[in-house]
């Protein structure tokens, strides 16, 4: 049985593809990635370890109807589950963004998701270095690191698989797997 649950929000499908790549690299310890618009919050209860992923839309928003996305996603999931407790859970985060078109709010959606899981009581692992990215501001930076893996498929797609591989090794160790 899988020990790690992978959940993602998406607007174009890119976050789903990265979630699948993470699951493939983790192997049997990780469950099939699930879109948050297709689950109940109780799905988180099945796992003590979670990987949560999100893109950032426009001026730093989580995907969802408020962000002019046609499908429900993180924005609605979080709004519908404000009392969600992640006490006792260890969470690794990943986010997608575009550092060239949005250098002043690069992966801010990841920062919003981080704030939610910390407030919900989770222990967050998987911080990622800022090296190799060029941006002005990001709500996903904490103590000179990103709060999770950052992927820029628009401008650095050739680095995505390598970054995912290194991050999966890192979080596997941090999860104690």
Features:
electron transfer activity, Flavodoxin_CS, FMN, single chain, Rossmann fold, 27% helix, 4 helices, alpha/beta, Flavoprotein-like_sf, 177 residues, six-stranded parallel sheet, three-stranded antiparallel sheet, transport
Structure write-up:
With 177 residues, the chain is of the alpha/beta class. The protein has a single domain, classed as Flavodoxin domain (Rossmann fold), CATH 3.40.50. The strands form 2 sheets. Strands 1, 2, 3, 4, 5 and 9 form a 6-stranded parallel sheet that branches. α1 packs across α4. The longest helix is centred in the C-terminal third of the chain and has 16 residues. The radius of gyration is 15 Å and the shape is globular. Belongs to the flavodoxin family.
């Amino acid at each position: 049985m899988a020990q790690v649950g992978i959940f993602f929000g998406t607007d174009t499908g890119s976050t789903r593809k990265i979630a699948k790549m993470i699951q493939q690299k983790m192997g049997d310890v990780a469950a099939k990635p699930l879109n948050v618009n297709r689950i109940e919050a109780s799905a988180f209860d099945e796992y003590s370890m979670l990987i949560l992923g999100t893109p950032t839309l426009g001026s730093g928003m989580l995907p969802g109807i408020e962000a002019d996305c046609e499908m429900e996603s993180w924005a609605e999931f979080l709004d519908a589950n404000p009392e969600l407790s992640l006490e006792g859970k260890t969470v690794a985060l990943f986010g997608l963004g575009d550092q060239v078109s949005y250098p002043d709010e690069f992966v801010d959606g990841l920062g919003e998701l981080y704030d939610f899981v910390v407030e919900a009581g989770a222990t967050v692992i998987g911080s990622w270095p800022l090296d190799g990215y060029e941006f002005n501001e990001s709500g996903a930076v904490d103590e000179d690191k990103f709060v999770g893996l950052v992927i820029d498929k628009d401008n650095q797609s050739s680095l995505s698989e390598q970054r995912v591989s290194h991050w999966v090794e890192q979080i596997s160790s941090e999860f104690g797997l």
